[in-house]
Specification:
mainly beta, three-stranded mixed beta sheet
């Protein structure tokens, strides 16, 4: 399963681990293994995964631990991209030093300059033409690369370990659906959440010496989510063009809720031979939610395997960058569970601002009335715990005004459950499909 290698990629010996766990991510994968023998397994050597999850990845041994009462030490591995943490860009590195003008250089010029300061990696495919005012001072090479990547929309890192120096490819994220996860087939648990923490739709950028852009702000998705304003200062930006470009980039990253799915999954590709059953990091994955009359498509951004030796098909996946408006999924589920609206609501307790909807049997807690709905009924600042059953929706949780802590909730249904969590000024929504109910 593993191959011990020297720095010239010359194979030294096979390693058959007694146990191995993996955490695969785009830029910082790690692993833990108990090898069959410690022969040659020392700090800093390279080990390559031959097959199974993470196949082809070259790891560096970063630590060895001997637990009391165990026969064999455990080796901690890190993705070889972490060798870029070993070197520092000392002194101020300006765009001109990287081959650009006094104020800006292209992303490719910046990446080529960064990688020229070491020998383990070289640049392979690079798919972007953007320019920016890149500046570095005391950053590790990896930090500098991530700074450049953060300015590139839909950027994805991939690696070629077939030769040395290794190749780093920086490309557009793959857009085609490469795998499918289905409840009742290869999903054992599913948790889907929306988080509006850090989200804004209107951005006021300020540059050097109080520099502003014409119109003062840029905006995105205001018609969908309303005006959520953010003001930020970057003293390194000296022209209006740089300031506007930076502001648009920030909005691309923050004008949508952060949506993630955590999935207990089975990689059935080896058993079925179907490519759509292969759970591949970085690929788009479709999840049909037939019970809710919808589906979502997200990218696999993390894959965790507890034991790839004995259970290589069992994984926990994190999926992100969702395109579906998940609030619609929750709304559809609630509508399916219990119809009706807020009409006829009445206040029950003034000390906790309780309200009950007599049509749907919804009891809601609110910090205060923030206005009225289209029918003139009171509208509430937020609601907390909901329970869905065949008789409608009920809710009952006190409001925490003092410390603005997150309030958790749970919606339970015969076959599925939905969680809604509310945080002061921000909405976090969550769908949770429990094992055994899918």
């Amino acid at each position: 399963m593993l191959l011990l290698k020297g720095h010239s990629l010359t194979p030294a010996r096979k390693i058959r681990p007694e146990k191995m766990s993996l955490r695969l991510t785009e830029r910082d994968s790690t692993a833990e293994m108990t090898p069959d023998s410690m022969d040659g397994v020392t700090h800093g050597v390279w080990i390559q995964t031959e097959r199974g999850p993470g196949a082809g990845t070259v790891w560096r041994v970063r630590g060895i631990r001997q637990d009391y009462g165990t026969d064999m030490p455990n080796a901690s591995l890190e993705h070889t991209i972490n060798t870029l943490k070993d070197r520092i860009l000392f002194g101020e590195v300006t765009p001109a030093m990287m081959g650009g003008s006094e104020t800006s250089c292209t992303a490719k010029q910046a990446v080529q300059y960064i990688l020229s300061k070491q020998s383990d990696w070289k640049l392979g495919t690079f798919a972007f033409n953007e320019s920016a005012a890149y500046k570095f001072d005391g950053d590790t090479l990896l930090d500098a690369l991530e700074t450049v990547s953060d300015t590139l929309e839909d950027c994805w890192w991939s690696y070629d370990f077939s030769s040395y120096p290794f190749k780093l490819n920086i490309t557009k994220q793959p857009a085609d659906v490469a795998c499918v996860l289905r409840p009742g087939r290869n999903i054992t648990a599913l948790n889907l959440s929306i988080d509006r923490t850090g989200m804004y739709t209107r951005f006021y950028p300020i540059g050097k010496d109080d520099l502003h852009i014409s119109g003062d702000y840029v905006s995105r998705n205001e018609d969908k989510y309303g005006v959520i304003a953010k003001v930020e200062v970057d003293q390194s930006l000296e022209t209006e063009a740089q300031l506007r470009s930076w502001a648009k980039h920030q909005l691309r990253r923050h004008a949508e809720p952060r949506v993630t799915a955590t999935v207990g999954a089975l990689d059935l590709a080896e058993a079925t031979g179907e490519s759509m059953d292969a759970l591949t990091l970085g690929r788009m994955c479709r999840i049909p939610l037939t019970d809710f009359g919808t589906e979502i498509t997200e990218r696999i951004t993390e894959a965790d395997y507890d034991d790839v030796v004995h259970m290589p098909e069992v994984a926990r996946l994190t999926l992100a960058n969702i395109r579906e408006d998940v609030t619609k999924i929750i709304a559809d589920a609630m509508k399916k569970s219990a119809g009706g609206g807020r009409g006829g609501a009445r206040q029950q307790k003034e000390d906790h601002a309780w309200f009950e909807d007599t049509d749907t049997h919804v009891k809601m807690v609110a910090e205060g009335i923030v206005g009225t709905d289209k029918d003139g009924n009171p509208d509430w600042a937020r609601l907390s715990e909901l329970t869905v059953d065949g008789n409608g929706i009920t809710s009952q949780v006190s409001v925490i005004k003092e410390n603005q802590e997150t309030m958790a909730s749970q919606i339970k249904q015969t076959e599925n459950s939905i969680n809604l969590m509310v945080k002061k000024g921000e909405l976090i929504s969550e769908i949770n499909m429990e094992p055994g109910n899918i």
